[in-house]
Amino acid sequence: MRLASPSRRHTVSVLVFDGMAPFELGTVVEVFGLPRPELDVPWYDLRVCSLERGPMRAVGGFTMTAEHGLDAFASADTVLVVAVPDVRADPPPEVVAALREAHARGARVVSICSGAFALAAAGLLDGRAATTHWRYADLLRRRYPLVQVTPDVLYVDGDDVLTGAGSAAGLDMCLHLVRKDHGARVANAVARRLVVPPHRDGGQAQFVEAAVLPPEEDDPVARAMAWALDHLAEPITVSRMAREACLAPRTFLRRFQLRTGTSPLRWVVGQRVLAALPLLEEGGAPIEEVGAAVGFESPATFRHHFARTMRTSPSAYRRTFRATAGT
Hints:
The protein has 14 helices and 10 strands. By secondary structure, the chain is of the alpha/beta class.
């Protein structure tokens, strides 16, 4: 999916309905609806759309009114469904028709949380891997057996059809779309404005079984993470990070897992891949030099971890980003 031409902003439509919860809608509005002139790129034109006309109730005791109808919804460059009124009922046939029309026209169709049920009802997920909120994964599999439900990831990127998990994973999905359209530098800037991590791998688990520790006044794990971010180009071991945290290695491993839901070394690999993105986008250094600059010990190791995280190779990422930027 490429951005609209410079003379026309990329349009994003999102569907709302009576009785919906506002959180996932809020993530879409926050990312795509706010003007961001400081980024110096053509930003999105967001259209909030609905089948119903007039005021609609939202969970929390307020009402909202959408300015656009289904025609605007189906005609956008990126079409988003963030929820459905009832996961056990069929969506309105008008919505199903609008989704099919948008996809047939070449739009990028995206769901967040239970919105996957609308895409599945339209047949857009048949034979595809897809995700939804983990609470709805079994039901989605039973109702739509042609869908390859992947319940333990944050999002699945099928290029023209993307599906995201629930709640806060909607932010990951929206930032992923910004990254695809504008690159890591812009996506990271938006993430900083949102005060969220700039990139969580789409394959990351949706939830962590252990409770997340409350923040501490002097957090040793955060201190070790900050040190690692400043030394990505150097060899980093668990023992070295534990020393920065002033903890025994076993204690550090346990506390790091509790706080982040992953291991220190896997987290470091993710940060190195993330640090490589702007180097691939904005510079012409050989792939081997980019990998070395962010701490990978060999080009083969860099390519392996980059492909596992980004679902593409470093050279293909560079080509794709520059082709997108060129439009």
